[in-house]
Amino acid sequence: MCSSDLQSRKGKGLYERILDRYPGGDYAEMAELYLCTLAYWEKDWQTALRRHEAFLRRYPNSPNAWFVRRERLPVIRAALTGKKAG
């Protein structure tokens, strides 16, 4: 296992614990976004779609919502359908 994989796994565990312990806490939104991003980077498209959609339901007015809607979701949906984004 390479060190970046190990770091990703540790980060994922940390952010999952934050969400489990403090779901409405000060860091919950960023923890959710980190987990969205990790699934996106890993090209785990089903998980990425689920996490990004959940992020938008929980934080529809987040400054990051625009990025998720306009940049991330089209790429994820295209990857799942085999079509080009855009």
Could you describe the 3D structure shown?
With 86 residues, the chain is mainly alpha-helical. Helix content is 74%, strand content 0%. The longest helix has 19 residues, at 3-21. It is flat, with a radius of gyration of 13 Å. The model has no long low-confidence stretch (mean pLDDT 91).
Helix content: over 70%
Q: Which stretches of 5+ consecutive residues score pLDDT under 50?
A: none
Give the strand tally. Answer: 0
**Topology as a string of helices (H) and strands (E):** HHHH
Number of domains: 1
- The shape is flat
Please report which band the strand proportion falls in: under 5%, 5-15%, 15-25%, 25-35%, 35-45% or over 45%: under 5%
Rg on CA atoms, Å: 13 Å
Distance between the termini: 35 Å
Q: So how many helices?
A: 4
How would you characterize the largest beta sheet? none
Global mean pLDDT: 91
Kindly name the structural category.
mainly alpha
